[in-house]
Amino acid sequence: MTQNIYDNPEFFEEYSRMDRSLHGLARAPEWPSLRSMLPDLAGTRVLDLGCGFGWFSRWALEQGAANVLAVDVSQKMLERARELTSDPAIVYRQSDLETLSLPEAAFDLVFSSLALHYVENLGRVFSAVYRALAAGGSFVFSTEHPLYTAPRRPEWLTHGNRSRTWPVDQYLAEGPRVTNWLGAEVLKQHRTIAATVNGLLGSGFALRRLEEWGPDPDQLAAHPEWAEHRDRPMFLLASAVKPG
Amino acid sequence: MTQNIYDNPEFFEEYSRMDRSLHGLARAPEWPSLRSMLPDLAGTRVLDLGCGFGWFSRWALEQGAANVLAVDVSQKMLERARELTSDPAIVYRQSDLETLSLPEAAFDLVFSSLALHYVENLGRVFSAVYRALAAGGSFVFSTEHPLYTAPRRPEWLTHGNRSRTWPVDQYLAEGPRVTNWLGAEVLKQHRTIAATVNGLLGSGFALRRLEEWGPDPDQLAAHPEWAEHRDRPMFLLASAVKPG
Predict the structure, then answer these.
(1) Closest residue to A212, CB basis, from B193, B210, B232
(2) I need a surface site. Which of A12, A220, B50, B139 has the fewest CB within 10 A?
(3) First to last CA, chain A
(4) Distance (Å, rounded) from C-alpha A189 to C-alpha A166?
(5) How far is A13 from chain B (nearest CA, A)?
(6) pLDDT tens across B62-84, in order?
(7) Percent of the residues in chain A that have a pLDDT greater than 70, as a whole number
């Protein structure tokens, strides 16, 4: 079962103050890349897995999606999402992603932003998504990059002020990683890129694109502090399709 | 153009003394994984890109391949390969992989072991391979893992005898990396996993499987020194197919 850290009141308060929580997709640095992997949304039926404050669900409607099923494990996230966007074309549902029950061939797009690294049994989620998609439907998601999640001590090492390196170890040792984030012990699941890719292929998906996100030159000029993402990417993005 | 370090006499002598040079595939730790990604070879027309001493070409014939075109940039490698295996079903050809001219739809399997990280323009090689394969044909290869090639200083850092970490930096900065290997300055091309995967997809391939190789428990018991490959994989393996 997925840890539901977002219903921890202190954690939730901290999370709510993050740029991407307050201002949505426009403040998520990887969003332009993720957006470029999406199909045309006009008339589509969308499933948003781990919807958080619902920024993507709202954006999908603005792009012409017919309706959105927005799922999150956290009651607090869903309450905030409902406050922010109450359009009846969005149905909010509280559920653990690992045990979510979905209708068959009912969606044209399944989207998930930074939720799947909390999931223990990713293969089960991939199979459920595959079944829930109509033929030709797309699955587009971001997750934490395994370079980011792998280390025992995920902190930059500095070398005499000249350079910094990211201390990779136990990369192939998949499984739980506990880190301190926003003042809480957060449980994430480390898995390799190959495991994610083979999980998609094994569920029947055809892979369309993979991205190890880093800032482009314009983003880097505006946010020099994002340079560390070029040394060690933090986000893995993927686009796959259910063959039609 | 690919650096042809293997025709450097001192380097060649050193390389020739390596376990995998003297004894072939059985001494390459990643070989069982790579072999498991291959199709049935009976009656197939095989292209071996970067054949080295020809161990794979010879094995392919033993598995029933009809014939093999074995290509390498190094004259010395090809001379040794011819000494080791002179079967007329293997045609040896000296060529840079980046400028290799191939017939269209002429092969059922294209194989490449640890050669593609020397190639500058990987997209061109992928497109040439795609064109050379018959519909339904397979492309199976290994290359150095980008975690291995990325760092400015690709050497383990030890931390008070308790642990070691691999110093990742400039992961997203694709391009040349010069390292000292077997006493020579070896020029390799670093590229991300996403670049390799998207290069395949962009050439028309469907991805079948990706592996970030590390030793399995039996291999680890027999070779405790391979544990470092679990902390930081050195080999990336891929299997793709030209849709039929």
Answers:
(1) B193
(2) A220
(3) 32
(4) 19
(5) 33
(6) 999 999 999 999 999 999 999 99
(7) 100
Nearest-angstrom CA–CA distance, B172 and A192: 17
pLDDT digits (tens, 9 = 90+) for B9-47: 999 999 999 988 888 888 899 999 999 999 999 999 999
Nearest CB to A201; choose among B147, B151, B209: B209
Q: What is the pLDDT of residues A64-111, one digit of tens each?
A: 999 999 999 999 999 999 999 999 999 999 999 999 999 999 999 999
| Bridge partners of residue A239, in order along the sequence | A140, A209
pLDDT over 80 (residue A215): yes
Q: For residues A177 and B71, what is the distance between their CA atoms, to the nearest angstrom?
A: 45
For chains A and B, what is the number of CB pairs under 8 angstroms? 103
d(CA A141, CA A38): 9
Q: What are phi and psi of B3, to 5 degrees?
A: -65, 135
CB nearest to B168's CB, from A147, A194, A197: A147
Q: Find the CB nearest B169 among A152, A207, A231.
A: A231
Residue of B nearest to A191 (CA): B212
3-state secondary structure of A95: coil
Please say if the pLDDT value at position A1 is more than 80: no
**What pLDDT, on the 0 to 100 scale, is given for residue A178?**
95
Interface contact flag, B206 A206, Cβ < 8 Å: yes
* Mean predicted confidence (pLDDT) in A2-8: 85
Write the class of the CATH domain B5-13+40-241.
alpha beta
Report the residue count for chain A: 244
Q: For residue B59, what are the contacts with CB-CB under 8 A and spacing of at least 6?
A: B24, B25
Q: Does residue A62 surpass a pLDDT of 90?
A: yes
Helix (H) or strand (E) holding B33: helix B31-35
Q: State which fold the A5-144+160-241 domain adopts.
A: Rossmann fold (3.40.50)
Task: Using 70 as the pLDDT threshold, list the residues of chain B that sit under it.
Answer: 1
Question: Which two structure tokens, joined as six digits, stand for B223?
Answer: 């070779």
CA A184, A189, A194, A197 torsion: positive or negative?
negative
DSSP state of B121: -
CB A73 within 8 A of CB A97: yes
Answer whether residue A24 shows pLDDT above 90: no
CA atoms of B23 and B192, how far apart (whole Å): 31
| Spatial distance between the Cα atoms of B13 and A219, rounded to a whole number of angstroms | 48
The span from the CA of A114 to the CA of A97, in Å, is 13
Other CB atoms within 10 A of residue A9 CB: 8
Q: Which of A162, A164, A166, A226 is the mutation pick for testing B, counting most B CBs within 10 A? A: A166
Nearest chain B residue to A207 by CA distance is: B207
For residues A108 and A127, the answer to whether their CB atoms sit within 8 Å is no
